[in-house]
Task: inverse folding
RNA sequence: GGGAAAUUAGCUCAGCUGGCAGAGCAACUGACUCUUAAUCAGUGGGUCAACGGUUCGAAUCCGUUAUUUCCCA
């Protein structure tokens, strides 16, 4: 494979590996039992040095410990070598002397071990003249040779494409990437634990769906060979979680991936992580409070006062969060206070034109209203805002409001102008649900390929009776973005979706295409 | 979907009006027993994203393609 061809530097390094093998050394070592991480080693020194008399502190060295990591810098100084090694939690300096290591070992270290290699070392901790806690190395164990040179130490790896494509290099070169992913893990654990303490049971429902449902989105299509049947990667776990409610589970959640075959930008990745939960005998209000609690509880891990710095702004997550009616927001932005979800299409067309909001011929009045909201209102909702009273027409799984039949009991949560959560009082009337599906199918026929599909088995489940319930979905990647001050969803996903570099990409273009 | 920009050594980047392909770091050789972007002396390293065109001559001008980024819808 061409992309694996070695360049000059790599060739040299490969030669070194061969030489090491000839000398009987294993370039790719075995288990190494560390006693301390880099940070623990420094703490160990700090702790022991406290009890040392003042005049002896300067020359104090701790008992031997064992530390391992990747060499990220080497300063060769003749008969002394300084190195820095990095492990998952931090870095520490090594002080290596020829007279301690011995002639032969020092020669190998000097000539055949370099930045990028992974080593284990043994020795005591001390403080150098310039004040840095270091390890006075007595033994070096080679654990892994590196053939690929590391990116430049000062500028690091900045090429955005390469950072995403070769995240492993990015992680070595840019410590903040690792910090972000560690925070991501902490946030997810925090949410999982929080849901547990609230009595929700974590469940796993299918990712391969015979019918893609639970959201308005285009699915990925795949195929099962032995069943010889089309399958869809799930766009949402919603309909399966509610089947569990029918079956008698009362508080369930799932925190995992969904897939939507749509555009990619700074807030959308085709596979993304969502936490969806359902609470039987609850409603929209129940899960509204839950949404606030979940996000605030996670935010408090990093920001006790809930003042969250994000991309130069400060977003105040203090509770309670604002609630506004979608209809009222649209009325305000259009200046038309008589507007309702039953207003005639011509009126919306006129308002959309006035605001220069584009729409399509097939769009209904409510759809146009949705577009006005998306374009003129959404991005202005910076502080956490629950937008409530959604039109029933675009919420086919939500219960209609008893007083306002064209409205449903649904909210979407917006923070920093982006959707963070979507929730409603779940529709549990099977025949209403059937009618809603049928309306969606009409819309699909009219050209809306994001309209929901009929899920007959789900209707059948509802016919057994589902308790009234509140359901909530929170976009986890966006929560992580907010709490890690990340500008792009790609920064909070270890391996974001990228276009494949095809083997014939650089060939002559095919005139047939 | 539309617009703009980027793509040159392993990495970070220069390269002007078309005229021998450059620097720093990394690597290699050597000096140096408290350095930390170590320092000093020397050496090697290139499909200038790909393909085509204009030209005596193209990294540079033109076109197409690819990937990525940003903005707009």
Result:
């Amino acid at each position: 494979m061409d992309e694996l061809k070695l360049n000059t530097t790599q060739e040299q390094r490969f030669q070194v590996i061969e030489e090491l093998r000839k000398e009987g050394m294993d370039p790719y070592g075995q288990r190494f039992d560390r006693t301390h991480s880099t940070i623990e080693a420094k703490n160990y020194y700090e702790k022991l040095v406290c009890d040392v008399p003042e005049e002896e502190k300067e020359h104090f060295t701790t008992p031997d410990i064992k530390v391992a990591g990747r060499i990220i810098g080497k300063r060769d100084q003749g008969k002394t070598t300084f190195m820095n090694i990095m492990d998952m939690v931090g870095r520490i300096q090594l002080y290596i002397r020829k007279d301690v290591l011995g002639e032969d070992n020092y020669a190998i270290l000097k000539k055949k071990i370099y930045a990028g290699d992974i080593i284990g070392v043994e020795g005591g901790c001390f403080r150098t003249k310039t004040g840095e806690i270091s390890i006075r190395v007595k033994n070096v164990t080679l654990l892994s040779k590196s053939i690929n040179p590391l990116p430049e130490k000062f500028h690091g790896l900045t090429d955005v494409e390469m950072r995403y494509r070769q995240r492993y290099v990015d992680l070595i070169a840019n410590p903040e990437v690792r910090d972000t992913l560690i925070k991501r893990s902490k946030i997810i654990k925090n949410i999982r634990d929080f849901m547990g303490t609230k009595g929700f049971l974590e469940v796993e429902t299918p990712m391969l769906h015979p019918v893609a449902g639970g959201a308005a989105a285009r699915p990925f299509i795949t195929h099962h060979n032995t069943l010889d049947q089309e399958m869809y990667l799930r766009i949402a776990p919603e309909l399966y979680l509610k089947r569990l409610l029918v079956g008698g589970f009362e508080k369930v959640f799932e925190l995992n991936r969904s897939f939507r075959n749509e555009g990619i930008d700074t807030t959308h990745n085709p596979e993304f992580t969502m936490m969806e939960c359902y609470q039987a005998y609850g409603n929209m209000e129940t899960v509204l409070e839950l949404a606030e609690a979940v996000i605030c509880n996670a935010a408090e891990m990093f920001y006790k006062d809930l003042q969250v710095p994000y991309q130069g702004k400060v977003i105040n997550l203090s509770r309670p969060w604002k609630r506004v009616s979608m209809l009222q927001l649209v009325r305000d932005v259009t200046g038309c206070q008589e507007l309702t979800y039953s207003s005639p299409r011509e009126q919306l067309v006129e308002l959309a034109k006035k605001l220069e909001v584009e729409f399509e011929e097939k769009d209904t009045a409510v759809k146009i209203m949705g577009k006005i909201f998306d374009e003129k209102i959404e991005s202005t909702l910076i502080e956490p805002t629950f937008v409530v009273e959604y039109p029933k027409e675009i919420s086919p799984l939500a219960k209609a409001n008893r007083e306002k039949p064209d409205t449903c009991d649904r909210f979407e949560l917006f923070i920093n102008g982006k959707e963070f959560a979507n929730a409603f009082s779940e529709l549990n009337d099977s025949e209403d649900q059937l009618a809603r599906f049928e309306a969606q199918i009409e819309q699909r026929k009219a050209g809306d390929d994001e309209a929901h599909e009929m899920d007959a088995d789900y209707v059948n489940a509802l016919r057994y009776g589902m308790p009234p319930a509140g359901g909530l979905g929170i976009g986890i990647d966006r929560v992580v973005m907010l709490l890690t001050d990340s500008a792009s969803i790609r920064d909070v996903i270890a391996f974001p979706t990228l276009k494949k570099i095809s083997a014939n990409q650089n060939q002559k273009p095919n005139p047939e295409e």
Q: What stands out?
A: Chain A has two domains: 8-150, 173-321+383-492. The two ends of chain A are 27 Å apart (CA to CA).
